[in-house]
Amino acid sequence: MGSTNSTLLKIPNVEVLMQETGFSPAHIIRLHDRFKALDKEGRGHLCPHDFGAIKELAMNPIGDRIIGAFFSPGKETVDFHTFVKILAHFRPVDKDRPKEPNSPEPINSRSNKLKFAFQLYDQDKDGKISRDELLQVLRAMLGMQVTDEQLESIADRTIQEADLDRDDTISFEEFRKACKHKRFTMFRFCIRPGERKLMLTLCHWSSELQDQHEL
Amino acid sequence: MGPFMSPFNNLLCMLLGISFTVWFTLLLVFIIVPAIFGLSFGIRSLYMKMLLKVFKWATVRMERGAKEKNHLLYKPYSLNGIIAKEPTSLEEELKEIRRNGSSQDLDGSASLTTGPSPSSSEFEMSDTFYFCRRGIESIVDDEVTKRFTAEELDSWNLLTRSNYNFNHISTRLTVLWGLGVVIRYGFLLPLRLTLAITGVSLLVVFTTMIGFLPNGRVKNFLSEKVHLMCYRICVRALTAIITYHHSENKPKNGGICVANHTSPIDIIILASDGCYAMVGQIHGGLMGLIQKSMVKACPHIWFERSEVKDRHLVAKRLSDHVKDKSKLPILIFPEGTCINNTSVMMFKKGSFEIGSTVYPVAIKYDPRFGDAFWNSSKFGMVNYLLRMMSSWAIVCSVWYLPPMSRQEGEDAVQFANRVKAAIARQGGLVDLLCVNTNVEANEK
């Protein structure tokens, strides 16, 4: 236990971090260990190519977008606090959170989760997903198997369904509505008992109708 | 008060005296004497079977209890949050998705448990969530980091230290756990400590005595017997239940024995079945005393701290030892750091350059009874030994693999990898061929 406390002490402003993100001390330590492991040169911050070294992420079709989400515009480095705050988006929603009128929305609220997902599409950060941006994502995910024409028709269909104000782009509100009726699990770290693995559900995100007021 | 106390005192003294005598006699008969002759009463296997039954019962109760009360049995995110891959790798999943890309399958409820919706005509905006999730998973954890935390279990063995995942524990189970604590700390721990102290002191005393004999067959014979006896006592001190496989491949003189390394106990486990020359750095204190007395009885290879840095000196001493066929086989752990017994990290090549026969040995611990993994960045040695001695038991299997030698045109690194693959395959361990940078960071 002694070593646990001493690791926490080394992290500056760790209490504020825990309060803002809702991670427990144990999680902070785990994330700190991971941060240090990724920061191979020990500089105390991460660069895009530190993320790029993760093999699975490199194979991921939207890997570079996910990496980009960690770096705010203009910044080339990510410190531990930002790292944790971004990952805090994926914590489960705190169902019993008291509704204080003046407190800021928690990072892992449904709305913020959706915002994170939205920015994966909206690379130029103008608040709207243009047809081009949608096409880029489609191309990355569906790749060579699908022809360009098919891709274009999928994009058209998607915009048609989601775009309610007919401006040929998808705003955040329209995105939110498009994702509303779906039940989906955003993160599940699966480990099955028979193979000595554990189930760790980091975020279960179900947007049933009765939970709409959260959004 | 006076006259009342003295008969009582006498009685107390008598009782204490008797219980001590009984205790030590039992100890001697059931543990030390068999250790000397290498026999076994089978008590430990019986103990092991009984424990397994209790653990199974405990887990079933927890599952039943959780179902009744509708609680989550597994914690939503546990302390060590180990993350493993999905059943399918990202590559396979991607291929699957793209293969279905031009089909007309529909499924309105997208991305339930596995990938995004397979159909191109029904692409959903939320399909990116699946890839986002896999991406974040890989940022938070990947194969290499996982190897350094303790392996997590799906049934609880009544040790709080292994309880990472279980939420719901009924009162009956808590009582059982409490009983377990009493047994382990009140009965087993003192017993084991006594044995450990006996074993170590016998080792020091006898090896020093043997040191006075002139070099020759008698000395070697006696030293072998003494070493074996003391290691066997230490094995019983840990309640280690070891199964040896393929003993016909046991290392012979003039060879190098190479094994995967999970904990400092590995040495005791191997040395209780055969005689080896140990290699290591001279420590101060108790360890140093043990090392000095061991080397009087038979030649071990101990290096001063300054000599360890000089690789040529190390290599020369090792090869000199190996060339002398009358000397015992050397025991080396090439990994150089403790891995959590699910994989075999890259072997360092130094030991493979010496050019003699290598006898690989795979050691695999059964984590159900007590986790033998030593996370040296978290726990010190004394802490670790106490944890070991207060676990239920250490159960492990040792496989002696057929000897291997370096072939023509194979360099040390390739040879090392070949040996490592053989060990990993035998022990059912995952063979991790990766750059050692993370290991360096975690090195003790």
UniProtKB/TrEMBL annotation, chain A:
One Pfam entry name: EF-hand_7
Cited PROSITE patterns: EF_HAND_1, EF_HAND_2
Presence of the UniProt keyword Magnesium in the record: no
GO biological process per UniProt: protein transport
CDD domains: EFh
GO CC, alphabetical: cytoplasm; nucleus; plasma membrane
Keywords: Calcium, Cell membrane, Cytoplasm, Lipoprotein, Membrane, Metal-binding, Myristate, Nucleus, Phosphoprotein, Protein transport, Repeat, Transport
Chain ranges of the EF-hand domain: 109-144, 150-185
Name of the protein in its database record: Calcineurin-like EF-hand protein 2
Superkingdom: Eukaryota
Signal sequence range: none
Entry GO MF terms: calcium ion binding
Stored InterPro entries: Calcineurin_B_homologous (IPR051875), EF-hand-dom_pair (IPR011992), EF_Hand_1_Ca_BS (IPR018247), EF_hand_dom (IPR002048)
Localization: Cell membrane; Cytoplasm; Nucleus
Family statement drawn from the similarity comment of this UniProt entry: Belongs to the calcineurin regulatory subunit family. CHP subfamily.
TrEMBL record, chain B:
Residues in Phospholipid/glycerol acyltransferase domain copies: 255-366
Localization terms from the record: Membrane
Protein name as catalogued: Phospholipid/glycerol acyltransferase domain-containing protein
Keyword field contains Lipid metabolism: yes
Biological pathway: Lipid metabolism; Phospholipid metabolism
Location, primary (coarse class): membrane
Sample GO molecular function, one term: glycerol-3-phosphate O-acyltransferase activity
Domain of life: Eukaryota
Protein family membership: Belongs to the 1-acyl-sn-glycerol-3-phosphate acyltransferase family.
Example of a GO cellular component annotation carried by this entry: endoplasmic reticulum
Region described as Disordered: spans on this chain: 100-123
Record-linked SMART domains: PlsC
Transmembrane annotation, as ranges: 20-43, 169-187, 193-213
A biological process term (GO) from this entry: triglyceride biosynthetic process
Pfam families: Acyltransferase
UniProt keyword list: Acyltransferase, Lipid biosynthesis, Lipid metabolism, Membrane, Phospholipid biosynthesis, Phospholipid metabolism, Transferase, Transmembrane, Transmembrane helix
